[in-house]
Write a structure and sequence with these properties.
Number of helices: 17
Structural class: alpha/beta
Radius of gyration: 26 Å
CATH topology of the largest domain: Rossmann fold
Strand order of the largest sheet: 3-2-4-1-5-6-7
Distance between the termini: 55 Å
Shape: globular
Helix content: 40-55%
Low-confidence stretches: 1-34, 128-135
Order of helices and strands: HHHHHEHEHHEHEHEHHEHEHHHH
Mean pLDDT: 83
Bound molecules: guanosine-5'-diphosphate
């Protein structure tokens, strides 16, 4: 009894309900910086708007988090930063691995910082979802650019739900803009779905190709060619020069077969040698030309508004879908119908109809969902 009272009254004892203090500063242990600052959404926004890169980086990490509390904070940060965003040119760059994307972005980025631009590079790596490995992460990329004070580079794995890449990248774009970056480059590997999603996030879409158009063209999906605002044939140097010129005229011919663009922009085909920094300035001049013309004729703003609407509908679809998927009966029925579709017992359309009419709608009406 005496012993018990002694324990309870001891100042060294931490009573139930009171968290034990850390004996060692956990941040010191990890070698990172402790978040000594107040990390409310408002203080994030304030720091980001002042160009604080570490807070920008941490805010982006929050947008990528799967934790509900992080997502909530991220949403508040975004709302707060929104009025300061939008003031940039957003450029998407795609091309197969090895075409020279990182070399090209580095050369372009270095030219842009010379012109006093602030450049953010957001790199999307679709391979991380499929293989667990990474196309972008396995080599040191853009070393010279990465160390520059006017530059922010952020690789981003695309693992997660469908549409996740687009949402997170869009959020990162807005946060970078609020931090004062006026050229945002979104890099994606041209091997799948992601570049179509990226097209919906950017003002200008650039496709990098290799010399040797005949073979190369066969490997490129027509869809990507059609949505590109500029085609750049990279590695147009040394022995490749003749091949690059030939490729240029073949691609120009192929482009003539596409219907004219709504904005009347004629897709230029340029040659570069990113390695030797040749032709990169000409690419930028064309992008500036595009920006000026499209701002003048109103397309620039219209295009962004269209993208906002697209994001709005996409988000509604995703949220409704995940809301229904939370329901166990709906999940079970989907699994069952999927099996039936696989066996050829029912068509996809009939199955979707059945799911809606026999499961989802009745459950909504009964107030079960
Ligand atoms: P990515 O996978 O598309 O990012 O391609 P990288 O930028 O990593 O480039 C792949 C390889 O091509 C590297 O060895 C580069 O040095 C080389 N490379 C990139 N651009 C050029 C260029 O303009 N000319 C030549 N000759 N090689 C280049």
């Amino acid at each position: 009894m005496k012993q018990e009272r002694k324990t309870i009254q001891s100042a060294l004892k931490v009573n139930k309900g009171i968290a034990a203090p850390q004996s060692v500063n956990p941040y010191l242990k990890k070698g990172s910086v402790a978040p000594a600052r107040d990390t409310s959404a408002a203080s994030y926004c304030e720091a980001i708007k002042k160009g604080d890169i570490s807070m920008l980086s941490r805010a982006i990490t929050r947008t990528e988090s799967r934790l509900e509390k992080d997502r909530k904070l991220a949403a508040e940060i975004l709302e707060g930063c929104l009025p300061a965003s939008g003031n940039s040119i957003r450029i998407g760059i795609t091309g197969t691995p090895g075409v020279g994307k990182s070399t090209f972005i580095e050369a372009l980025g270095l030219a842009l910082v010379e012109r006093k631009h602030k450049v953010a590079v957001l790199a999307i790596d679709p391979s991380s979802r499929i293989s667990g490995g990474s196309i972008l992460g396995d080599k040191t990329r853009m070393e010279k650019l990465a160390g520059h004070p006017q530059v922010f580079i952020r690789p981003s794995a695309s693992s997660g739900v469908l549409g996740g890449v687009a949402r997170r990248t869009k959020e990162s774009i807005l946060l970078c803009e609020a931090a004062g970056f006026d050229v945002i480059i979104v890099e994606t590997v041209g091997v799948g779905q992601s570049e179509v999603e990226v097209k919906n996030l950017v003002d200008f879409f650039l496709l990098l190709l290799l010399p040797g158009a005949g073979d190369e063209l066969q490997g490129i999906k027509r869809g990507i060619m059609e949505v590109a605002d500029m085609i750049v044939i990279n590695k147009a140097d040394g022995e490749n020069s003749d091949k690059a010129n030939l490729a240029k005229s073949q691609i120009q011919q192929a482009l003539r077969l596409f219907p004219p663009k709504e904005n009347r922009w004629e897709v230029p085909v340029l040659l570069t040698s990113a390695l030797y920094h040749q032709g990169v300035e000409a690419v930028w001049n064309k992008i500036e030309d595009y920006e000026q013309r499209m701002k003048k004729n109103g397309y620039f703003l219209r295009h962004r508004q269209g993208q906002e609407r697209h994001a709005f509908y996409e988000t509604i679809h995703q949220r409704i879908w995940s809301y229904f998927l939370d329901d166990e009966d709906v999940k079970k029925e989907i699994a069952r119908l999927e099996e039936s579709i696989g066996k050829g017992e029912i068509s996809a359309f009939a199955a979707a109809g059945k799911l809606m009419e026999e499961v989802i709608i009745p459950r909504v009406k009964q107030g079960k969902i």
